[in-house]
């Protein structure tokens, strides 16, 4: 993936997480937004690379991002299991909101980059990039004057 495409995708990911976290995001709302977004991605990708493939890439993404965000180094976490997601959510909830959104963006961007290296940039974009778009209910929300 080119650096420009990577930067555009990272900004789209950041925007999606921020929109879904609300007008005054907290680490709790960022955690929920991140995991909701992750579950959308997982649902899209399981038909392409299978649940185990999604879990393997997610685990690898956590490992890579955990080097920068040590609080995401979670031993025993394997993919999309409810226990794993609850553990990850609690890790996000304990962080400052700006740190949480940076880590969330990094985690989801790393996943999509690893995915693109596996299935190709074009297929990744067609399947996953729709997740970053505003939902109809999100695009109808307006900021207060």
**What number of domains?**
1
First-residue to last-residue Cα separation: 39 Å
Shape: globular
Structural class: mainly alpha
Tally of helical runs? 6
Listing every helix as H and every strand as E from the N terminus to the C terminus, the arrangement reads HHHHHH
Helix content: over 70%
Name the beta content range. under 5%
Any descriptors?
145 residues, mainly alpha, 74% helix, globular
Folded structure, characterized:
The protein is mainly α. It has 6 helices and no strands. The chain is globular and about 35 Å long.
List the topology elements.
Elements (H helix, E strand, L loop, with lengths): L2 H19 L5 H40 L15 H12 L3 H23 L1 H8 L7 H5 L5
Summarize the structure.
This protein is an all-alpha fold and 145 residues long. Helix content is 74%, strand content 0%.
